[in-house]
Target: NYN domain-containing protein
Amino acid sequence: MAVKPKEQRVEILIDVQNLYYSARNLYSKKVNFGKVLEEGVAGRKFIRSFAYVVRTKTGEEKPFFEALTKLGIETRVRDLQEFYDGTKKADWDVGIVIDAIRTASSLDVIVLASGDGDFIPLVEYLKNQGKRVEVMAFGKTTSSRLKEAADEFIDLDFGLEKFLLKK
Model:
């Protein structure tokens, strides 16, 4: 990991669904969000972190939400929408974009933990505002254009023992 200026003010925005499904589909494991947070902060001034999560009717994810909160990650919760045809949707993209734009003025670095190419315009906007944008995700499932747009891409595939939970 490169040494980063300690005085940089950092915020981390975690697209939980994106990282969760990448880890599950690639490695059949769960993400160690504590290590993602630690790597994203990288010894700099931690301002805040948001995890964008989805609540189901069963509520089985409640312990996971509590674990995130214990790590110092604020959860943004949206209910899973279920449609008549059986499809389910819980899209956080707009919420992530709004939080990034709303908080950017008090930050030096925004770390986006997502491989979703839909965030390319956000990355470009933040960079045009003079912000450093770092993207963290599993490289195998990350948009190549998103990797290129970021000031730095941190590939979680090259730290599996750190970024994936053991069990």
User: Anything to note?
Assistant: The first strand starts at residue 9 and ends at 15. The chain has a mean pLDDT of 94. Residues 9-46+93-163 form a domain with the Rossmann fold fold (CATH 3.40.50.1010).
